[in-house]
Predict the structure.
Amino acid sequence: MEQFDLFGEERKLESEYTSKIKTPIYEPSLKKPHVLELVDNAKTKRLINKIKASNLSEDDKRFLQIAAYRHLRFNYELIADYYAHSGKEFQELAEESGLVIIDFKKAIQYGYVKLADEIAQLYLKDYEK
């Protein structure tokens, strides 16, 4: 396949990519992290305190406090470790909430992954062998 660079010079693309992606293998740590390590809520707390101190109506305050939770920062590596060391009930709820995606079909079922038919067909062509 021929391509041209920014200066119009012809160059050949090297075929270093394949249609299959190698999925990284996750190895859980030996230690279960503390649940409070899984999320950084500093910005959320600051915003909620400012909202509470504001002169807004109670309805406005409630809405903005709910919206402040979008600033939570999850540490997915630690969440994966916590998940690996947790019981079945926690694991099922973590999967349903989308914190951890273990089963591709469940991820589609829960609405966390949506594929166009064309992409789904390509996926099936490569991985259902």
Summary: The longest helix spans residues 42-53.
